[in-house]
């Protein structure tokens, strides 16, 4: 079974959505759309009652909310209603060492 991403055009390209019951990791350079993809997918799922988790090692919640607020995803309201959670870890991996 597949789960729709809610991203216009993508579901048609990938045959109806992503395979259900898997974990997906988004990787790419800055500005490639990882955060936007993740938030659109989680927001779409939340609109159908699905739980979601967004984990980041590089951004703080204020920046994520500000970036995503340019879209009509209503992220602050969904977070307030606990439709999904932002997990922010501020330690960064740099040249083989964890940095605070």
From TrEMBL:
SUPFAM superfamilies: P-loop containing nucleoside triphosphate hydrolases
A Pfam family of this chain: ATPase
Domain KaiC-like: 3-82
Coiled coil feature spans: none
Matches recorded under InterPro entries: Circadian_clock_KaiC-rel, KaiC-like_dom, P-loop_NTPase
Entry protein name: KaiC protein
